[in-house]
């Protein structure tokens, strides 16, 4: 059975974005890009909330075609264009979208159907609102967190309205990057 793994950059004090959605505090470099690229290259489904999906769609489909495209832009654009995208949104319409499934209702039922299919883990990228919804419905099976060396003091937290404890098991794939970011991989213990 597939697992949903939430992929998030997070501040040391637990925020995934600033108060207005700012992400300019996130540290990324080629070392992190290479590491993430290896992990996601095995993925065949990526999941997004509406806002993150629209942000991704505005850049990645043509990022590799730009004259100044970096190695990361070329590699990630290729992956993004090939991976099947699942978007949680009540407002986006599926007409005209390629390789994309929109889930507007019966989220738990539809996601559980996808989880039953053969394939790799489903990577939920960013998307704090969608992540909060999936946490409330106990649909997230793991967290792939990139802890950035910063305390924001305020912003959008990763965990809100958690009704029951979420017991986690740290996986050995965790590591530290030279820019000070620490990757932590947790599986939800059920």
Automatic annotation (TrEMBL):
InterPro entries (UniProt xref): DHFR-like_dom_sf, RibDG_C, Riboflavin_Biosynth_HTPR
Pfam families: RibD_C (PF01872)
Domain Bacterial bifunctional deaminase-reductase C-terminal residues, every copy: 2-178
UniProt GO BP: riboflavin biosynthetic process
GO molecular function term, any single one: 5-amino-6-(5-phosphoribosylamino)uracil reductase activity
Name used for this protein in its record: Dihydrofolate reductase family protein
Species the sequence originates in: Pedobacter endophyticus
């Amino acid at each position: 059975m597939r697992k949903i793994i939430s992929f998030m950059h997070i501040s040391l004090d637990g925020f995934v974005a600033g108060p207005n959605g700012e992400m300019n505090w996130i540290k990324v470099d080629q070392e992190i890009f290479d590491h993430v690229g290896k992990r996601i290259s095995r993925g065949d489904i990526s999941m997004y909330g509406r806002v993150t999906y629209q942000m991704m769609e505005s850049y990645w489909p043509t990022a590799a075609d730009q004259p100044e495209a970096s190695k990361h832009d070329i590699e990630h654009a290729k992956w993004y264009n090939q991976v099947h995208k699942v978007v949680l949104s009540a407002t986006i319409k599926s007409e005209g979208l390629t390789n994309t499934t929109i889930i507007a209702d019966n989220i738990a039922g539809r996601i559980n159907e996808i989880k039953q299919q053969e394939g790799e883990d489903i990577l939920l990228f960013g998307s704090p609102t969608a992540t909060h919804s999936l946490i409330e419905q106990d649909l997230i099976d793991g967290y792939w967190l990139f802890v950035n060396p910063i305390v924001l003091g305020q912003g959008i937290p990763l965990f809100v309205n958690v009704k029951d404890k979420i017991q986690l098991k740290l996986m050995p794939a965790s590591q530290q990057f030279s820019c000070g970011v620490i990757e932590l991989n947790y599986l939800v213990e059920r």
